[in-house]
Write a structure and sequence with these properties.
By secondary structure, this protein is mostly beta strands. The chain has one domain: TolB, C-terminal domain (Neuraminidase), CATH 2.120.10.30. The chain has no helices and 24 strands. The N and C termini lie far apart (38 Å). The relative contact order is 0.18.
């Protein structure tokens, strides 16, 4: 597979690529740069929006449009009517990290401490009216979250565990029966962001592993895409047919980063993705 540069950038901590089917654009963030980026592959048009806080994720909203943001101090809405907090919870030393929108339109927002202390983060479910419920506590670095094509399984990564876990999803949307889908061996990096494809396989970016891997629903490793950059952070399918795999990368902490570090990479024709729901709020 050919790895190309989709967006030449010098993001400190590029993260959270999300394809917005309604606008045919890619949304992604630079967490430490406090920036939300968009990119339209058809035209090459790009936008950059500054945020007043570190931003862990940005996802499209249904209805009035705009974005839902997982910020340092909570979850906020941004759109034609301006900015407003949806759920604000200030915890000194903690920030928002990766987030995902569930099939029911709720936002599953992860947090972590800046020092990555064990138990300092959590995964919370935020509904359209701002109701927040902690789903998983005792988390160190809350990262990739995704659902199987039928919505009956949820996949989740707490990066320092080196595990990709899978849950059953009940009728109340609560994940239960946590178990290991796969583990990343020593020396291969840490699992970071993930996406689920139309076959139900899980694609995972490996921080410090210079690769993206695909695992089957049974946990078998069946594909590895080597990357020129050491710190890929997350991946998502995009493009008109959802066949192009976009990969965000980071420069932070590297003494001699690769020239592509901080850019968004793309692997054309890597597979077939799933259309992602917009946040219901």
């Amino acid at each position: 597979m050919t790895v190309e540069v989709a967006i030449r950038e010098y993001a400190a901590l590029g993260e959270g690529p999300t394809w917005d089917a309604d606008t045919q654009r890619l949304i992604w963030v630079d967490i430490l740069g406090s920036r939300v980026h968009t990119y339209e592959p058809a035209s090459g048009r790009r936008t950059v929006m500054a945020t007043e806080q570190h931003v862990g994720a940005a996802k499209p909203r249904a209805g009035g449009g705009g974005l839902v943001l997982n910020l340092r101090d909570g979850v906020a809405l941004h759109g034609p009517d301006g900015f407003r907090w949806l759920h604000r919870e200030v915890v000194p030393g903690r920030r928002g990290n990766d987030a995902a929108v569930a099939p029911d339109g709720s936002l599953w927002a992860g947090t972590m401490r800046y020092d990555e202390a064990p138990g300092g983060g959590a995964l919370s479910r935020i509904t359209a009216d701002g109701t927040a419920e902690v789903v998983l506590d005792d988390v160190a670095v809350s990262n990739g979250t995704g659902w199987s094509p039928d919505g009956r399984l949820m996949y989740y990564i707490d990066s320092p565990t080196r595990r990709i876990d899978v849950f059953d999803v009940g009728g109340d949307q609560r994940p239960v029966n946590r178990r290991q889908l796969a583990a990343i061996e020593d020396g291969a990096g840490f699992p970071d962001g993930l996406t689920v494809d139309a076959d139900g396989s899980v694609w995972v970016a490996l921080w410090d592993g210079a690769a993206v891997r695909r695992y089957t629903p049974s946990g078998e490793l069946d594909r590895v895409i080597p990357l020129p950059t050491r710190r890929p952070t997350a991946c998502a399918f995009g493009g008109p047919d959802l066949t192009d795999l976009y990969i965000t990368t980071a420069r932070t902490g590297l003494e001699a980063p690769h020239p592509m570090s901080g850019s968004v990479l793309v692997v054309p024709g890597a597979g077939k993705g799933l259309a992602q729901p917009a946040f219901a709020g």
